Amino acid sequence: MANILIVEDEYTINELIKRSLQLVGHTCFCVYDGKAALEEMQTDRYDLILLDVMLPEQDGFSLFEKENRTPTIFLTAKDSLVDRIKGFSLGADDYITKPFEMLELTARVEAVLRRTRKDTRVFELENVRVEFDGRLVYRNQQMVDLTPKEYELLEVLITNRNIALSRDKLLELVWEYDFEGDCRTVDVHIQKLRKKLGWEACIKTVYKLGYRLEVLA
Question: What is the DSSP annotation of 126-179?
Answer without folding.
Answer: TTEEEETTTTEEEETTEE----HHHHHHHHHHHHTTTS-EEHHHHIIIII-TT-
